[in-house]
Amino acid sequence: MNTPFENQSSYIESRTSSELEKIEIELLLQGLYKWCGYDFRSYAYNSIRRRILHRVEAEKLSSVTGLLEKILHDSACLRRLIGDFSINVTEMFRDPLFFLDFREKVVPLLRTYPSIRIWHAGCSTGEEVYSMAILLLEEGLYEKTKIYATDIDAEALKVAKSGRYPIENMKKYTKNYLQSGGHNAFSDYYTVKDSRVKFHSQLSKNIVFAQHNLVTDQSFNEFHVILCRNVLIYFNKELQKRVHKLFYESLAMFGILGLGDKETIYYTDKQDFYEEISPKQKLYKKVK
């Protein structure tokens, strides 16, 4: 007859490596949250796993547990891991038809307001924030607008605040701008120095860049527009529900919510509180 210890040992040996890896990842995410308040525990598992394993390999470590030990004692490694978790895929006038629909369907509503507050949640390195500033400037609305651009990634926010981007991106950005209904020459909005461009300071004067964690932080104002595009796809269902609640409570009545092309308000508990104003471009108006 096997002893309890032998039975336990047999059970442990039968556990698969994937089960062990999942336990390690859960411990790492819990340690990250306890140590510095970054909460990635409700992010989509497969997405967060890929980023963790990438960092394990990049740091030349043998296990996820080794990565946990390193981030607890090495602040530079911690910053690198946070950078891996932040989804910094963006461009000027990304999805141009979204900005075209915003011009045609949202701008007329914004014209009726004496002042406008816009929240770019998950603004990354800021390209879409400057895109919105250009659009509002061309529509004569920028002077009465305040744009709050937030992200969890401090390094991405530094890039956003600088307004400096590689010159090789401008060809694509110019094409996007024209397809979005741009009125001028795109090059009017920046100057070139060496291999980078610097967007004019008139575009950033009404932008407030700040660190904000959608997972743990609360609302900080009431907004007429909230844009959070291609961020929610990286959250699990429970976290998506929590963030939709945050956005709903942060929007003024008849405020506009803009999501990414793979995201929707449907199948959430807030779908009945919005009216669809652009089905293809995922623009919704709060009506309840």
Automatic annotation (TrEMBL):
The keyword Transcription belongs to this UniProt entry's keyword annotation: no
Q: Name a Pfam family for this protein.
A: CheR
Q: What's a GO biological-process term for it?
A: methylation
Indicate yes or no for the key word RNA-binding. Answer: no
Identify the residues that the record assigns to the CheR-type methyltransferase domain, covering every copy: 13-273
Keywords of this protein's UniProt record, alphabetized? Methyltransferase, Transferase
Q: Which domain of life is it from?
A: Bacteria
Which molecular function terms from Gene Ontology are attached? S-adenosylmethionine-dependent methyltransferase activity
Q: Which InterPro entries match?
A: Bact_Chemotaxis_MeTrfase, CheR_C, CheR_MeTrfase, CheR_N, SAM-dependent_MTases_sf
Classification via PANTHER family: CHEMOTAXIS PROTEIN, CHEMOTAXIS PROTEIN METHYLTRANSFERASE
Q: Tell me what this protein is called.
A: Protein-glutamate O-methyltransferase CheR
